[in-house]
Design goal:
Rossmann fold, binds nicotinamide-adenine-dinucleotide, oxidoreductase
């Protein structure tokens, strides 16, 4: 049977006993993995510290928005009794032959690695793990951590030795939010093991549980670094696009047109410039590399360039509309990117901070968040049909949600400037309303 999203649900004879898997961390990625495994002849115990998440999974509903195919997979697995959830991680793990770890590692304000969430999860795993189980880390990790931090931690707590008494593997999760179900089936899965047996067990697990192409690599470190390198590449490439865009603006050249022309050469793949890089991947993982002894070079410089983009955008606004003190500025998009509810390291947070320091009255709109959630950031939520839109002096598009395709700016009667941080809005229409449009690298716009 195939779901609406084209995902194969394997028809299962439920009288046979299915192998047990524990998925630790039921967020955007973990819940999707759990639901996919539970529709591919596995019996899945999901574990999460959030009781609301656990309750919704046990009712057969997904707490993740905008993830095509996920609702159906969760519901089908619930209906077939192959997916259940608990806050008791050790207990779930004690029943599993395979344990998947997908709890985030973040960085703090000083860009130091924050292991608190995953350390706690691994402690719980170590308290439940049984001999000969297979533990696969999928969370993006600093190279070396699977073995040297977490393998060690499990050994110290459980007394079981990695590679001998239990199997240890690493397989980075490289999917993209909004298309996770699709990507799990179509992206090749990189897998590394602490030894041959662990690698073989992990590869066999993914062959059956996902049915995707596998890339088996020679070590845990290779698999870990492949994911970090992929994210560093994207961060550096975006920084390059941003740097080129600032130059293009000075020269009154449209950067979008330059990129499209340049990328017609097969070896050129210039990414899109933008108002900032957010989320819990790209702005974080370069530090897994930088913090291991890289004080200078392209990677830290690219982080600096990308982190400076919100300030650059605010300077552009000041140049156009003068001092921001007392001005009403609306940010569109609290999430770090469109159609995802994820505020971690969002560029919106830096914009809010800077606007408030400059004395602007800061408003935020984001259809994924409730007014109460938005207010927690010390700003005023504003619906796009609210009469107060006519008092807004300037708008910054930070994340392009689908809902923003249809914004009617005609009732933003006082608005002088719309800064399109993602180069997505309709410049002609905005100009027709007598509002100045500014993109990133797009100043002057197309002249023909
Ligand atoms: N979201 C993405 O786009 C994406 C893409 C590729 C890879 N990844 C990887 O997946 C990881 C997880 O991402 P996500 O988007 O699913 O995160 P998320 O924030 O949506 O979910 C994390 C979940 O872990 C739970 N959790 C926290 N501490 C726990 C603990 N001690 N024990 C059990 N559960 C705990 C949280 O309650 C939450 O439900 C990321 O850190 C990254 O390495 C994410």
């Amino acid at each position: 049977m195939t779901t609406e999203m084209g995902f194969d649900i394997i028809m299962t004879d439920y009288s046979e006993s299915l192998p047990n898997v524990a998925v630790v961390g039921l967020g955007k990625i973990g819940l999707t993995l759990a639901a996919v495994f539970a529709n591919h002849r596995y019996n899945v115990f999901g574990a999460d510290i959030n009781p609301d998440v656990v309750a919704s999974v046990n009712q057969g509903t997904s707490h993740i928005q905008n993830e095509p195919g996920l609702d159906e997979l969760v519901w089908t697995a619930h209906h077939n009794n192959t997916l259940s959830a608990t806050t008791a991680t050790a207990e779930a793990v004690s029943q599993a032959d395979t344990i998947i770890v997908i709890v985030p590692v973040l960085t703090d304000e000083q860009n130091q690695i924050d292991y608190r969430m995953i350390d706690r999860a691994v402690e719980d795993i170590a308290m439940g793990i049984k001999e000969d189980a297979l533990v696969i880390f999928e969370t993006t990790l600093p190279p070396g951590d699977t073995e040297n931090r977490f393998g060690k931690m499990i050994k110290e707590i459980s007394g079981l030795r990695p590679g001998q008494d239990f199997n240890l593997a690493y397989s980075p999760e490289r999917v993209y939010s909004n298309q996770i179900v699709h990507d799990l089936q179509h992206y090749p899965k990189i897998v590394g093991g602490i030894n041959e047996k662990s690698l073989e067990r992990a590869a066999n697990f993914y062959k059956k549980a996902l049915g995707c192409e596998l890339i088996e690599v020679s070590s845990l470190g290779t698999a870990e670094f492949a994911k970090v390198a992929e994210c560093v590449y994207r961060d550096v490439n975006i920084a390059l696009a941003n740097e080129l865009s600032m130059f293009a603006e000075e020269k009154d050249i449209n950067m979008a047109e330059v990129i499209s022309a340049s990328n017609s050469q097969p070896y050129s793949n210039i990414h899109s410039p933008g108002i900032g890089v957010g989320g819990h991947c790209i702005p974080i993982y370069p530090y897994f590399f930088i913090n291991k002894g890289l004080s200078e070079g392209l990677t830290p410089l690219s982080r600096k360039i990308n982190d400076s983009m919100p300030d650059y955008a605010i300077t552009k606004i000041e140049e156009r509309i003068g001092s921001l003190s007392g001005k009403n500025i609306l940010i569109l998009g609290l999430s770090y990117r469109g159609n995802v509810k994820e505020p971690t390291k969002s560029t919106a947070l830096r914009l809010i901070d800077q606007l408030q320091k400059k004395g602007a009255n800061t408003f935020v709109n984001d259809p994924s968040f409730s007014d109460r959630e938005i207010s927690q950031y010390g700003v005023t939520p504003l619906a796009l049909n609210n009469q107060y839109c006519s008092e807004i002096d300037g708008v910054i598009l930070q994340a392009f949600h689908d809902a923003y395709n249809a914004i009617d700016f005609s009732h933003f009667t006082k608005c002088q400037l719309i800064l399109d941080g993602r180069n997505k809005l309709n410049q002609k229409e905005i100009n027709r309303l007598g509002i100045t449009y500014e993109g990133i690298g797009n100043e002057g716009g197309l002249t023909f």
